[in-house]
């Protein structure tokens, strides 16, 4: 879906209104321990949105929606999947896949969705070198605050701290953070890329499509069967 980025940001600001605690996701759990923590992140995201609206207004953006889903999240029986929705007008095939690996969580599924979107666009840039769509800005919309805040704020500090938290504990999901950081850095060498939070389950067609793809991916056949 190719849209004016200024319009996209306006839509995002409207879509993100209200509290993310209004409803419970059937596929995940809260990613912040308190409303005060969530409110602080909201302010940072809103400020970042205003800056990017100024920098990238009036440009054409390729908009991508990503989502992760997990049944029985947090339990030994958990199964996760992820989805990436590209509008049919882009000519890029949308993605619906199961989460690989023994650790099946909603957070990892959300991260893999963004990684997959970045890797698809990287592959397209490497195999084709014509057409404005390959150099136009990319806007990736995720309803995972964990993923969006993590890549923008936490990863730079973790890298400086040898992938340890401020408490000197190993970073959770380090393997995926490393992949996400690398893919994002590589694609940004070729075209502008922005990752933004969008409120989930709020009637946004693109987000709903990505959610459907993620849920569908949960029970698809995995490359390596889970040891259960």
UniProtKB/TrEMBL annotation:
<feature type="compositionally biased region" description="Basic and acidic residues">
    <location>
        <begin position="22"/>
        <end position="33"/>
    </location>
</feature>
<dbReference type="InterPro" id="IPR012337">
    <property type="entry name" value="RNaseH-like_sf"/>
</dbReference>
<dbReference type="GO" id="GO:0003676">
    <property type="term" value="F:nucleic acid binding"/>
</dbReference>
<dbReference type="GO" id="GO:0043137">
    <property type="term" value="P:DNA replication, removal of RNA primer"/>
</dbReference>
<keyword id="KW-0540">Nuclease</keyword>
<comment type="similarity">
    <text>Belongs to the RNase H family.</text>
</comment>
<feature type="domain" description="RNase H type-1">
    <location>
        <begin position="58"/>
        <end position="219"/>
    </location>
</feature>
<dbReference type="InterPro" id="IPR017067">
    <property type="entry name" value="RNase_H1_euk"/>
</dbReference>
<keyword id="KW-0479">Metal-binding</keyword>
<dbReference type="InterPro" id="IPR036397">
    <property type="entry name" value="RNaseH_sf"/>
</dbReference>
<dbReference type="Pfam" id="PF00075">
    <property type="entry name" value="RNase_H"/>
</dbReference>
<dbReference type="InterPro" id="IPR002156">
    <property type="entry name" value="RNaseH_domain"/>
</dbReference>
<feature type="region of interest" description="Disordered">
    <location>
        <begin position="16"/>
        <end position="39"/>
    </location>
</feature>
<dbReference type="GO" id="GO:0004523">
    <property type="term" value="F:RNA-DNA hybrid ribonuclease activity"/>
</dbReference>
<protein>
    <recommendedName>
        <fullName>ribonuclease H</fullName>
        <ecNumber>3.1.26.4</ecNumber>
    </recommendedName>
</protein>
<keyword id="KW-0378">Hydrolase</keyword>
<keyword id="KW-0255">Endonuclease</keyword>
<dbReference type="InterPro" id="IPR050092">
    <property type="entry name" value="RNase_H"/>
</dbReference>
<dbReference type="GO" id="GO:0000287">
    <property type="term" value="F:magnesium ion binding"/>
</dbReference>
